Amino acid sequence: MVFTTPKSAFWKGVRDSAPFVLVAGPFGMLFGVLAAEAGLKVIEAMTFSLTVFAGSAQFTALQLMQENVPTVIVLISALAVNLRVAMYSASLTPYLGAAPLWQRACAAYLMVDQSYALSIVQFETEPDMTIQQRMAYFLGTNAVIAPLWYSATLTGALLGSQVPDSWALDFVLPITFLALVAPMIRSGAHVVAALVAIVTALLAAWLPYNLGLIVAGVLGMMAGAQTELMLSRRSFQTERVTK
Fold it and tell me: Which residues, in sequence order, are CB contacts of 1 under 8 Å at separation 6+?
């Protein structure tokens, strides 16, 4: 698709993010409900969502807080879960790094899984997009999702335990990440990273405070990086032999 203006790129971002509305709403409502059940007031739950704006980190922190885990562990765990956002940012820097500071600040705040997944595919598919069009597209991917997340959190916090278990809102979390991660596994390194992380998470499930997930994430990233390096070296050696 050839964009004529940043506005057209923005609206394509909105359209591309539309399917995520089906999960962002229940996801946000689930957080609001759990926050209310954990004893947080509505204003506290909303402040949580407005300042952090990272669903997985919020759920991790909330669960650990309910278990009376030391604050240091809560912070470390939430930061570890969100380490992937730093990699997202590094990956998008070649495409968005030339934007004005205030736009990059907005993008940093709005950097979530679906905005990254949609944007990196779009930017790789349309390499001729201008910096204004790229930023407009990125912001478009969150134009509906962010307000929906806030409003759903508010709804869940107000309803609290009145939401019946039959709604199975907790099922939204794994489905969301499966939908995001599966299309992004496009190389051998990605497959190795995913498999190592899965196996490690299962084997380390006994660790306290859900630290097994942190270990799994770190080992998965290390395995993926080493696989990428090994494949690159092999490719280089093959090219030298053929020449």
Answer: 12, 126
Q: Evaluate whether 47 touches 35 at the Cβ level (below 8 Å).
A: no
Q: Where do the structural domains in the chain lie, given as residue ranges?
A: 6-184, 186-243
Q: Give the predicted TM-score (pTM) of the model.
A: 0.71
Res. 13 pLDDT band, cuts 50 70 90? very high
